[in-house]
Amino acid sequence: MYWLMALFFAAAALLALMVIRALSGPKAPPAGSLDKELLKPFAGAEDKLAALLRIPTVSSFDPAEEDEAVFTRFKAELKTQYPVVHERLLLCEPSDRSLLFEWPGRRRELPPVVLCAHYDVVPAGDIELWEHSPFSGAVIDGFVHGRGAQDIKIMLAAAMSAAEILLSRGFVPERSIYFAFGGDEEVGGLRGAACIAEELKQRGVRASFLLDEGGFVADGLLSFADRPLALIGISEKGYMDVALEAQGTGGHASMPPRHTASGVVAKAVTATEARRFRAKITYTMAGLLKALSRYSPFAYRFLFRNLFLTAPLVKAAFSMTPTTNALLRTTSAATMLSGSQKENVLPQSARAVLNVRLLPGSTVAGVLSELDAIASRAGARAVLAHQGHANDPLPESSVEHEGYKAIVAALAYAFPEAGAVPFMFTAGTDTKHYTQLSQGIYRLAPIFQKNEDITRVHAANERISVDNVRRAVLFYVRLMEGL
Ligand SMILES: [Zn+2]
Questions:
Q1: Which of the two ends of the chain, N or C, has the fewest CB atoms closer than 10 A to its terminal CB?
Q2: Residues of the chain with pLDDT under 70
Q3: Integer distance in angstroms from the first to the last C-alpha of the chain?
Q4: What are phi and psi of 319, to 5 degrees?
């Protein structure tokens, strides 16, 4: 009887402790609002962005599909739009697809900061679907329309506008600022960011922190949060394409073996789908939950602040939707399948491709061997689909770093309505080329994005609101002033 009472009291004490942890942790002050007067000095920044959107800098894996002339024209247009920057900063072109501006700071002993963006865009796709022509740069009804408006000429244009304004006010930054713009991010960044990284390495530059695209200020993405949330990417998943392959005998399909090569590959695909990779609460995820708890109602705070007991529950809940599931584990998606070329001919070989995104903590080699073990049991094998196009997950940058704090401070000023949380970017950016340059690598476009906006990225009718453009300029001004 006594032991039952002891157990009861222990459970009650534990529950009380968890409730106290949920209640006592920091809670964010009420969200602020922006004084729109602050945006007034940046009127006109949208027209500069529009001018950049009119140049169709479409990159492609196939050089025959690229028009080199437009990339040259883009650089000329940049000079027209931002004359003071071109006159006063030191410009170097490490390659034909990159631009590197250096703005020397007052205190050269401080490590510099690198602000990145890319000026290539993905193709417009079906032009019929666009309300305004994709390269019109139309500024209508409070929006700037065109391919690249959100991804990611906005960052380039806003950073340039901010520098232009600060320069004309006679401002000199405390530490040096580099602006690093690549012209082939959408196809890997080897001609752009990789060359900039090499140039900075040659100069012996070690940066304090680097800011590139990735997250954004998400408006309405997490229904339970009490305000929009700036998702600051502190890590990035790794990438690889894995081929599952099997060999067959070929021949006529009227007298088939028990299993054909196509059947074996199909079995291997099914086996990889049946087995999920292990869910893990990474440093990034733990940071996200901790920060998120400040903006969440009690039930969520209870969950997020007591991970020692609630981790399995959190993992189960996050596993339920593809977006949140991708934050917890390595994912593998079967995307391509091929076998025989003809209905009645047995395949001599068959192949499926898995697109794999690796969670920080895992490696290309490790995940490949796990997949190979699964494929082998089905009679197939797993190999890298293209060598040299695979990369390990990027290191997780600290939320205690001065760079993270500087970004949060600039966000608090330009987006007072929003909170800030660290998060993991599940796609790829140019930052993979910069890992040697700095320990503080952060990914965020300083713009509000609703779900409806996100669906326009890499799709038809990409656009950005004029208000968003000016906010982005305000963010950069504040960031540069605060360095
Ligand atoms: Zn991009």
A1: N
A2: 388
A3: 64
A4: -75, -15
Tokens of 370: 């796990």
pLDDT at 473: 98
How many other β-carbons are positioned within 10 Å of the β-carbon of residue 469?
29
**How far away, in angstroms, is 427 Cα from ligand 1 center?**
10
- For residue 62 the two structure tokens come to 């196939």
Phi, psi of 256 (to 5 degrees): -80, 155
Centroid of ligand 1 to alpha carbon of 186 (angstroms): 6
What pLDDT is recorded for position 245? 98
147 Cα: distance to centroid of ligand 1 (angstroms): 11
Catalytic residue among 46, 66, 102, 120: 120
What pLDDT shows up at residue 18? 81
CB 52 within 8 A of CB 146: no
SS3 308: helix
Q: Which CATH class is domain 36-214+399-412+425-482?
A: alpha beta
Confidence (pLDDT) at 15: 84
CA 212 – ligand 1 centroid, Å:
9
Contacts of 250 (CB under 8 A, 6+ apart): 345, 346, 347, 348
Question: Which of the residues 66, 164, 185, 199 is marked catalytic?
Answer: 185
Give yes or no for a cis peptide into 281 (omega within 30° of 0).
no
Taking the C-alpha atoms of residue 387 and residue 6, their distance in angstroms, rounded to an integer, is: 61
DSSP β-ladder status, 331-338 and 139-140: unpaired
Residue 371 tokens, joined:
């997949």
Q: Measure Cα distances from 290 to 30, 304, 309 in Å.
A: 18, 6, 15
Q: What is the pLDDT of residue 28?
A: 86
Enumerate the domain spans of the chain: 36-214+399-412+425-482, 238-384
DSSP assignment of 390-443: -BPPPPPPPSSSHHHHHHHHHHHHH-TT-EEEEEEE-S--GGGGGTTT-SEEEE
Contacts of 103 (CB under 8 A, 6+ apart): 88, 89, 90, 163, 173, 176, 177, 178, 179
184 noted as active-site residue:
no
Per-residue pLDDT tens digits for 412-427: 999 999 999 999 998 8
Q: Which of 22, 40, 240, 211 is nearest to 115 (CA)?
A: 211
> Which class does domain 238-384 fall in?
alpha beta
